[in-house]
C-alpha cells in the first residue's frame, strides 16, 4: 500500500494543504472517474489516514492504489457534510462506496381525488396523492382495502362517476356499496364513509369507535334495526383490529431496533422494524468494513435512513458511538426530529436483546450452511472416497408379502434432506417378495434415466440392506457402465456398511456423526417408502371392496369416491343419497352388499 512519501508529488502536496475543517472528500482515478466519496469531521486527519501504514480492508487497499486526484468541499458542520456526502453518492454512485440499500418498494393505500373517491393499491409515492402506509407487504395492504369495501361501503369500480347513470352492480345487492354510480347515494353521505376509512387507516380508532357507537344507538332508537346492525358489525371490526394490535404490547408506533456485529472485515447488521405497535419486518445486511473505525456502522446506517421510504421516529441502538450526527442529519433531511436511543432497561432493552438473539441465530445458520457437514467428511474418510459425497441418494423397498411393492429414493445434499429431489417408484417387473430384483429394477430405472437426460449423478449411491441388495444394484450399474461408481449398502440390524469390492463391512462407532448421518438417510428413505406403500395399499383395499359389488364398474366407483370421499362414508349413506350418483337399482345393491 502506498504511503504519503510514495504517492505522486501532486497528490502529496494536496495532502499537506488539507484544512482541519469538517467537509466531504472525493477520490478520483487518472481518468477523473469518481472512486469514492466520504465525509469527515477533520478533513486533514481523515484523508491522510488512508495513506498511513495501518491495516486496511482489501477493498480500500485496491481503491488507494487507483487514487490520482483529490477534491474537497468544506462545510459548516459534520451534519451538513453527511447530507452532502449522501447527495453526491446518490447522484454519482462511486464504485468503492458500500452502502446499506433498501431497494424494496413498499405498498401503500391511496384514496383518489374524485367526486366519489376510490381506495386503491399502489407502490408509487407521489406528493399529490392521499397515501396511507407503507404496509409490511402487499397482502396486508390488500386485506385493508378489502375491509374498506366491505365495511365502509367504498366503491371498488373504476367508473368515471357524475357523467352518466349506470346500473347497480353486485356490490350494491350484497350491501357492500351504496351505488353512487346509479345516484342512489348523495356525495356527502358517501364522503362520510371515506372519512371513516381515513380514520381507520390513520389509526385513530378511538374516535371511530365513539362515532360508530353513537350512530348505532341513534339507529336503534329510531327502530332502524338493519342500519343499527350494520354499525354494530362495523364497530366489531374496529374493536377487533384494536385488540389484535394490543397483543404486541408495544406502545411505540414507529420504531427501528438496530444491532451490528463485526467479524473480521465484515459487519452484519440486523434492523427490526416496528410499526403500529407490532413487529412487521426485519432486514439483514452484510457489508465490508473500510478500516477499523467504529464510525463505519454509523455512516452506513445514516445513508440507509436518509434514502429510506419509511424512516422511524426513533432508532434503538446498542451503543451511541458515532451516532450523534445520525439523528441531526435525519432530522434535517426529514424536517422532523428522529431520536437515537440507547436503552438500559424496559421494553426497548428487551427488543434490543431479541434482535441480538435473532442476528446471532441467523449468523450461526449461515455459517452452518457454508461449513461441510462433519458426517459427510468422516464418511468420505471411512469409505476412502476420492471426493466428498456432497449429494447422496438412498433406495428402500416396501411391500406386504410381495403385494403392492413400491420403492422410495431420498436425496441428501451436504448432509441435509433435499426433498424436492425425492422420488417414488411402483415396482413393475417383479412378482412376489423379491427385494433383490426390486432393488435392481429401481436403481436401473433411476440411473438409466439420468444418463439419457445428461443429468449429474450423485456422489454416493446407498441401498437399504446388506450384500444381497448391494450386489443386485451393482450388477445393474455395471450394465450401465457405472460399475466403479461409489455404491454402498447399509445393513439394518448390525448397522454395518457394505462395499462392492470386498465382503468385509465397515463398522463406524455409534457415537460418530458419519453413522448418525447414514442412519438419518436410511430412516428417511424408510419413512418415505412406508408412507407411499400405505397410501397405495389403502387405495387398493378401497377399490377391491367396491369392485366386488355386482354392476359397479370403474366409472361409478370413481364417481362415488369423488362424491363421498371414502368407503366408510359410502357405507353410512342412505339409499336416496347413493341413488343420486349411481341410480336407484345400483344404490340398493350397494346398500345390501356393504351391510
3D structure, described in words:
It is found in: Cytoplasm. GO terms for molecular function: DNA binding; excinuclease ABC activity. α10 packs parallel to α11 and α19 (575-582) crosses α20. This protein has 20 helices and 18 strands. The longest helix has 35 residues, at 513-547. Strands 12, 13, 14, 15, 16, 17 and 18 form a 7-stranded mixed sheet that branches. It has a 5-stranded mixed sheet with strand order 9-8-7-10-11, with helices on both faces. It is of the alpha+beta class. The protein has helices at 9-16, 43-49, 58-66, 78-92, 138-151, 170-173, 187-202, 205-221, 225-246, 295-306, 324-334, 346-370, 374-382, 435-453, 467-479, 513-547, 554-564, 567-572, 575-582, 584-594, and strands spanning 23-28, 34-40, 69-74, 108-111, 119-122, 130-132, 254-263, 266-275, 278-288, 314-316, 339-341, 391-400, 403-413, 416-417, 423-426, 460-464, 487-490, 497-499. It folds into 5 domains: 9-81, GIY-YIG endonuclease (3-Layer(aba) Sandwich); 108-246, no CATH class; 254-369, Ribonuclease H-like superfamily/Ribonuclease H (Nucleotidyltransferase, domain 5); 377-536, Nucleotidyltransferase, domain 5 (2-Layer Sandwich); 548-594, 5' to 3' exonuclease, C-terminal subdomain (DNA polymerase, domain 1, Orthogonal Bundle), CATH 1.10.150. The protein is 46% helix and 18% strand.
How big is the Rg? Answer: 36 Å
The separation of the N and C termini measures 92 Å
CATH superfamily of the largest domain: UvrC, RNAse H endonuclease domain
Total strand segments: 18
Amino acid at each position: 500500500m502506498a504511503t504519503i512519501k510514495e504517492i505522486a508529488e501532486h497528490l502529496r502536496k494536496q495532502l499537506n494543504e488539507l484544512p482541519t475543517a469538517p467537509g466531504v472528500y472525493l477520490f478520483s482515478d487518472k481518468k477523473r472517474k469518481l472512486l469514492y466519496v466520504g465525509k469527515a469531521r477533520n478533513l486533514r486527519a481523515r484523508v491522510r489516514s488512508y495513506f498511513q501504514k495501518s491495516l486496511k480492508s482489501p477493498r480500500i487497499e485496491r481503491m488507494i492504489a487507483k487514487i490520482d486526484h483529490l477534491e474537497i468541499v468544506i462545510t459548516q458542520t459534520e451534519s451538513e457534510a453527511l447530507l452532502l456526502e449522501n447527495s453526491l453518492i446518490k447522484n454519482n454512485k462511486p464504485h468503492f462506496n458500500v452502502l446499506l440499500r433498501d431497494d424494496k418498494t413498499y405498498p401503500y393505500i391511496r384514496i383518489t381525488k374524485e367526486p366519489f373517491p376510490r381506495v386503491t393499491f399502489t407502490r408509487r409515492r407521489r406528493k399529490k396523492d392521499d397515501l396511507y402506509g407503507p404496509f409490511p407487504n402487499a397482502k396486508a395492504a390488500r386485506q385493508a382495502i378489502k375491509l374498506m369495501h366491505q365495511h365502509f361501503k367504498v366503491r371498488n369500480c373504476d367508473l368515471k362517476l357524475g357523467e352518466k347513470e349506470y346500473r347497480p352492480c353486485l356490490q350494491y345487492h350484497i350491501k357492500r356499496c351504496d351505488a353512487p354510480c346509479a345516484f342512489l347515494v348523495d356525495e356527502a353521505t358517501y364522503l362520510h364513509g371515506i372519512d371513516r376509512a381515513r380514520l381507520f387507516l390513520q389509526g385513530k380508532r378511538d374516535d371511530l369507535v365513539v362515532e360508530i357507537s353513537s350512530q348505532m344507538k341513534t339507529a336503534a332508537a329510531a327502530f332502524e334495526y338493519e342500519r343499527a346492525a350494520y354499525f354494530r358489525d362495523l364497530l366489531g371490526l374496529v374493536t377487533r383490529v384494536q385488540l389484535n394490535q394490543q397483543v404486541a404490547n408495544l406502545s411505540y408506533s414507529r420504531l427501528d431496533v438496530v444491532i451490528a456485529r463485526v467479524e473480521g472485515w465484515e459487519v452484519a447488521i440486523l434492523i427490526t422494524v416496528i410499526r403500529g405497535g407490532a413487529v412487521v419486518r426485519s432486514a439483514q445486511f452484510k457489508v465490508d468494513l473500510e478500516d477499523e473505525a467504529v464510525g463505519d456502522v454509523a455512516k452506513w446506517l445514516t445513508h440507509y435512513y436518509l434514502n429510506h421510504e419509511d424512516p422511524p421516529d426513533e432508532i434503538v441502538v446498542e451503543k451511541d458511538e458515532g451516532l450523534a450526527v445520525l439523528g441531526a442529519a435525519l432530522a434535517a433531511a426529514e424536517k422532523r426530529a428522529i431520536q437515537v436511543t440507547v436503552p438500559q432497561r424496559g421494553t426497548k432493552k428487551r427488543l434490543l436483546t431479541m434482535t441480538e438473539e435473532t442476528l446471532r441465530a441467523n449468523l450461526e445458520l449461515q455459517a452452518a450452511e457454508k461449513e461441510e457437514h462433519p458426517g459427510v467428511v468422516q464418511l468420505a474418510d471411512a469409505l476412502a472416497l476420492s471426493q466428498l459425497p456432497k449429494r447422496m441418494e438412498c433406495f428402500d423397498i416396501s411391500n406386504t408379502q410381495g403385494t403392492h411393492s413400491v420403492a422410495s429414493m431420498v436425496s441428501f445434499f451436504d448432509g441435509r434432506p433435499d426433498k424436492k429431489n425425492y422420488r417414488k417408484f411402483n415396482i413393475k417387473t417383479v412378482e412376489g417378495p423379491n427385494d433383490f430384483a426390486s432393488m435392481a429394477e429401481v436403481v436401473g430405472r433411476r440411473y438409466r434415466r439420468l444418463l439419457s437426460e445428461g443429468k449429474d449423478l450423485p456422489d454416493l449411491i446407498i441401498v437399504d440392506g446388506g450384500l444381497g441388495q448391494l450386489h443386485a444394484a451393482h450388477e445393474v450399474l455395471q450394465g450401465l457402465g457405472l460399475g466403479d461408481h461409489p455404491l454402498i449398502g447399509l445393513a439394518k440390524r448390525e448397522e454395518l456398511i457394505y462395499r462392492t469390492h470386498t465382503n468385509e463391512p465397515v463398522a463406524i462407532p455409534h457415537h460418530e456423526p458419519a453413522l448418525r448421518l447414514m442412519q438419518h438417510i436410511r430412516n428417511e428413505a424408510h419413512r418415505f417408502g412406508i408412507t407411499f406403500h400405505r397410501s397405495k395399499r389403502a387405495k387398493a383395499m378401497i377399490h377391491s371392496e367396491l369392485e366386488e359389488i355386482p354392476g359397479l364398474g370403474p366409472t361409478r366407483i370413481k364417481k362415488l369416491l369423488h362424491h363421498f370421499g371414502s368407503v366408510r362414508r359410502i357405507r353410512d349413506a342412505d339409499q336416496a343419497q347413493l341413488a343420486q350418483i349411481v341410480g336407484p337399482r345400483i344404490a340398493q345393491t350397494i346398500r345390501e352388499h356393504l351391510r
